[in-house]
Amino acid sequence: GESVGLHLPTLSVQEGDNSIINCAYSNSASDYFIWYKQESGKGPQFIIDIRSNMDKRQGQRVTVLLNKTVKHLSLQIAATQPGDSAVYFCAENAGGSQGNLIFGKGTKLSVKP
Amino acid sequence: DSGVTQTPKHLITATGQRVTLRCSPRSGDLSVYWYQQSLDQGLQFLIQYYNGEERAKGNILERFSAQQFPDLHSELNLSSLELGDSALYFCASSLLTGDTEAFFGQGTRLTVV
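Output (structure tokens, whole complex):
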């Protein structure tokens, strides 16, 4: 079911291409960032996190880049698959904890077969 | 399946009423988090409990309260309900309260009529 704002940014990519989802965060004191994936009708699912003392972190098919100078976070998904279709949220926290996360509005990723 | 169980899945109630949402965290997880997801506000952190104690508080209204019981399950109580309280309410749990991965339940969809 619907779970996000009516005017979500959308990104449409071809299956097999790489996807880049961007996020601008608000608090320069934030020291911990997380990307979540939310499929229709489900709760958010943790993808990858990064602390502010890092610029880049890699997971399986995903890479998160952090640019503290411009308060920008990006999620790169390699070889995008239909199963990657979902809404992606970035979240920031100023206390280095899962508590009190501030979520972005989300980006809807659609993968064309 | 994240291992986090929320009940009920759907709830329809009238304005002015009170409801209780229940969350059973993953086995062994000590931290429980509550989030509200609405069309206009997106995902918002409400409150966190760790091993029975309130740990962090977000944008939780005074009409809302929560608690975590000795068996670590948690309940979110919403009272004097208003139409604007209609939303998806998610519970998440994590092992500790540090920057560890949190697992989300499927959510409770609350509709206030």
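Residues 1-6 of chain A have pLDDT under 50 and may be disordered.
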